[in-house]
């Protein structure tokens, strides 16, 4: 548009000048020595204009010729910058794709040959992140040092290096070193969202609950933290602050600093209830738990509500029975009522509520409570039954088959079968009842005869080279009884006359 405007303007001026010169119709007389030159005025004007244009073009050509080396140098620099920029983009792409080794290699090249400080810092930080992803922490630290040195004269780049280094250190678990990196940003009062998130991560790792609480609130107000995550952080940090300050009595200040909605969060309510109970304010403890239960029926709050002091049992029973009208099938609430009745020694109602709770959900804790109740009432069989059920529910034991026996061992493939006199000896021994010698009962005639024969019989050697007295009945030990006994040991056990028989090692 501008070109058309200037073209139109110059054309208009030229036409106007031509018309004016034609109207004047004058001549210009030029004397050069003895020579006289007479030309028209229009010709003179055109000659002057043409001379000006030629002079201007000549000067421009001269300048262009003298600037050729500069233009070549600038072209070379632009080419290098474009190449470094393309390599930097390639490194970032490889970093995002997860090709960390290739990304670190390309980005390190940019750090070494780029003449742009900002580009060098960005490449060094990206290469440090790639090295960190490969757990090459020494190379990462060297790259961070290079980035810090090149960003020393630029405040914004220095802040970027500090934030990036803190992020990598937090990933590695070095929260205190990350805080040291972020200290300059804190000193300048930086309120960047990324910096605040890094501080939150560091304080969480260091369990500095005061700072976690403050940062979670601030980030939530700025919509930089979701409501769910902020609520969790506020809940656990505030509860930890209350527990930590119970010894010095500062927990009341923490409690007063909380909003109404924050006081009803389960962890905070539990910690506050314990704090109030520790100083004897049982009514306040009950009120805190009741306010939390009015918002949401949390099992942890119900369990704490069921552990009532004797002076609070009646009050909590009335409250729990009122809640039962709106939640008649809540198993946890029924179990809580049962525990409160047990605390108040209302045995019948306790049994009623606990059994109703079991109808809604099979719970080992409720079975154990019923077992304790039946044991106190003298109903031993029912108590034992409830305790067994509690064990089965808690441990998920497999069913045990009753009256089952193991099958007899197959001895048909045994290498050395007892024969001859040893077999007769063992056959006679089988007729002796087990424990007859120990009980003092006289042996029958055949057994006594066998005992005398055993005492006088010579040792018989089997085919495998062992004596008959040393041969085992079975090659496998009985489960739970160790190694099987030898014939000599059995003789000693059944006949006192054989006590002096020598032992023979297998």
Automatic annotation (TrEMBL):
It is a multi-pass membrane protein. SUPFAM superfamilies: TPR-like. Residues 26-134 form the HemY N-terminal domain. Coiled coil: none annotated. Keywords: Cell inner membrane, Cell membrane, Membrane, Porphyrin biosynthesis, Transmembrane, Transmembrane helix. Pathway: Porphyrin-containing compound metabolism; protoheme biosynthesis. The chain crosses the membrane at residues 42-63. This is HemY protein. It comes from Jezberella montanilacus.
């Amino acid at each position: 548009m501008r070109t058309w405007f200037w073209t139109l303007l110059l054309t208009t001026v030229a036409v106007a000048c031509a018309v004016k010169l034609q109207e004047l119709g004058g001549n210009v007389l030029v004397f050069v020595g003895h020579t006289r030159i007479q030309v028209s005025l229009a010709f003179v004007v055109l000659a002057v204009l043409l001379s000006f244009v030629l002079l201007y073009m000549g000067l421009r050509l001269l300048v262009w010729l003298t600037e050729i080396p500069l233009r070549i140098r600038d072209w070379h620099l632009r080419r290098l910058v474009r190449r470094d920029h393309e390599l930097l983009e390639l490194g970032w792409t490889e970093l995002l794709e997860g090709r960390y080794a290739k990304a670190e290699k390309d980005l390190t090249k940019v750090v070494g040959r780029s003449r742009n400080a900002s580009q060098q810092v960005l490449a060094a930080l990206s290469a440090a992140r790639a090295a960190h992803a490969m757990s090459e922490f020494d190379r990462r630290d060297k790259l961070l040092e290079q980035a810090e040195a090149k960003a020393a004269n630029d405040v914004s780049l220095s802040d970027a290096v500090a934030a990036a280094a803190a992020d990598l250190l937090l990933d590695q678990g070095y929260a205190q070193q990350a805080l040291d990196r972020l200290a300059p940003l804190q000193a300048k009062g930086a309120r960047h969202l990324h910096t605040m998130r890094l501080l939150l991560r560091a304080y969480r790792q260091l369990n500095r609950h005061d700072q976690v609480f403050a940062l979670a609130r601030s980030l939530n107000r700025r919509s930089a933290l979701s409501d769910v995550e902020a609520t969790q952080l506020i809940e656990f940090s505030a509860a930890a602050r209350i527990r930590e300050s119970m010894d010095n009595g500062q927990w009341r200040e923490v409690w007063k600093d909380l909003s109404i909605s924050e006081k009803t969060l389960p962890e905070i309510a539990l910690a506050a209830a314990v704090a109030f109970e520790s100083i004897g304010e049982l009514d306040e403890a009950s009120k805190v738990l009741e306010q939390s239960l009015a918002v949401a029926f949390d099992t942890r709050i119900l369990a704490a509500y069921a552990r009532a002091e004797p002076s609070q049992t009646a009050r909590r029973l009335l409250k729990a029975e009122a809640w039962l009208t709106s939640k008649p099938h809540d198993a946890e609430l029924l179990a809580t009522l049962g525990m409160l009745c047990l605390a108040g020694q209302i045995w019948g109602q306790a049994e009623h509520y606990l059994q109703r709770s079991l109808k809604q959900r099979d719970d080992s804790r409720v079975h154990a409570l019923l077992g304790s109740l039946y044991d106190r009432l003298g109903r031993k069989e029912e108590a034992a039954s409830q305790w067994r059920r509690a064990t089965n529910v808690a441990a998920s034991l497999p069913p045990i088959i009753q009256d089952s026996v193991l099958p007899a061992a197959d001895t048909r493939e045994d290498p050395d079968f007892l024969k001859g006199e040893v077999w007769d000896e063992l056959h006679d021994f089988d007729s002796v009842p087990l424990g007859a010698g120990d009980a003092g009962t006289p042996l029958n005639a055949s057994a006594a005869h066998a005992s005398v024969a055993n005492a006088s019989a010579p040792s018989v050697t089997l085919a495998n080279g062992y004596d008959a007295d040393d041969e085992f009945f079975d090659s496998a030990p009985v489960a739970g009884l160790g190694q099987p006994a030898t014939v000599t040991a059995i003789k000693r056990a059944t006949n006192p006359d054989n006590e002096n028989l020598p032992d023979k090692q297998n």
